[in-house]
């Protein structure tokens, strides 16, 4: 692995100038390295961070990578990491024209890292330097505590997807002063929508009523309005009070709670374990936004490498080569999901909708397909819209907001089903659905969504840690529960209980009856490394 030569660096600097002229915004300094495929195999388990701490799983992944490469040799185009300065890696046998395309792709990634709000907690950090300090600390701890260091890493990593990422992000995004009172925010945002579940038109009527009374009484806190609310909903004040009491309790992730409250870790001889837990948690939090923005991030990079490379005069003579390479990266997969393709087309779709004024409410009311297709107000602003998307959206908000039936029809998208052909003894793929609801569900189901596991503080004391899994339609992977609970028990220093929901297959009444399932709440308990389960 070595830095690029002056020739390639000059190409990159030219790409930077053109990317900035197009509106991309990123730091002045970047580092580019040339790597071999062997380098990539060795760096991949460490998420391409050369200074990441060493861990036995990394060595296993390197061996697996070497085996895969012998069978399926690949030639990755690039890898970029969100560091200060940004670091990117390039294969050692790329021609110049391909590097130009890749440089534009990488610069768009860097722009995304440094401007998307989900990465806000990483903007001021030198993660590579921090990782080096962490690595040195773990080396020192290994010399003192031996294999127990790796046990603590193992136990911490088993729960590193329960780090409270969104709560951490929210700490930096909360306004210092509320624009409206918390009572108004709770009434319109939670009470009417989530608790009373009123239809939209009734909520709009309430908003109109509040605005009218506010204007008449010049009362921003809405005292006169809430006098009327109390008569209509006598329980409102009590519900609002309970909500305020709940919000007053700071959210604590499972790893934080164990670190701060475990009697075992409070012992002087075990305090060093907290440092390892912090390293694992911080590393997980740093990379969390990347997994939550994969589709949008890759779509953004693909959009800009296509926009900038096609108008670059250095493409001359390589148009066909570029077309083949770009198609391989951004073509739609009929089976499976290509994040580059979906992200790119969603951004193009949003740009077109904005330019034609199709995000306007008047367009949304049109049912006639011909009128919808012909609608074009020439409003412009498409580029500004996708820059806003880049700054404020994640994969979930992007998909949930902009995947529509028009988008499905435009790109001929569909959900693929799989069935067995008994006559031929083969598996067949077929078009299962072209409905937006089904396609959107498929996309959302593919996104990263760690389980919601909370600490029940009323049932937790020094000798028992009581965890509650909030069931969201998917059960925990039962094979992982025992080993994970062993790790938590060790770090907690006492009994651990986990309340969760399991999906049970009902016995069909007849051979032709449709398979049915039921949900059953169960309680796992581990004490002295022995685990039991009982129905609740």
Shape: globular
* Whole-number tally of structural domains: 5
Mean pLDDT: 87
Distance between the amino and carboxyl termini: 57 Å
**Cα-atom radius of gyration:** 27 Å
Total DSSP E strands: 11
Main structural class: alpha+beta
**How helical, in percent, are the residues?**
40-55%
**Helix tally?**
24
Q: Order of strands side by side in the largest beta sheet?
A: 7-8-9-10-11
Largest sheet: 5 strands, mixed
Beta-strand portion reads 5-15%
Ranges where pLDDT stays below 50 over 5 or more residues in a row are 174-179
Q: How would you describe the overall organization of this protein?
A:
This protein is of the alpha+beta class and 536 residues long. The chain has 24 helices and 11 strands. The protein has helices at 6-21, 37-43, 56-71, 96-113, 127-145, 148-157, 165-173, 182-195, 200-217, 223-232, 236-248, 254-261, 263-266, 272-292, 294-310, 319-330, 339-356, 361-364, 369-374, 382-392, 395-402, 405-410, 436-445, 481-492; strands at 2-3, 30-35, 78-81, 86-91, 415-421, 426-433, 452-455, 464-470, 495-505, 517-527, 530-535. The strands form 3 sheets. It has a 5-stranded mixed β-sheet with strand order 7-8-9-10-11, covered by helices on one side. Residues 174-179 have low confidence and may be disordered.
Itemize the secondary structure elements and their pairings.
Blueprint: E1 2-3, H1 6-21, E2 30-35, H2 37-43, H3 56-71, E3 78-81, E4 86-91, H4 96-113, H5 127-145, H6 148-157, H7 165-173, H8 182-195, H9 200-217, H10 223-232, H11 236-248, H12 254-261, H13 263-266, H14 272-292, H15 294-310, H16 319-330, H17 339-356, H18 361-364, H19 369-374, H20 382-392, H21 395-402, H22 405-410, E5 415-421, E6 426-433, H23 436-445, E7 452-455, E8 464-470, H24 481-492, E9 495-505, E10 517-527, E11 530-535
Parallel strand pairs: 2-4, 8-9
Antiparallel strand pairs: 1-2, 3-4, 5-6, 7-8, 9-10, 10-11
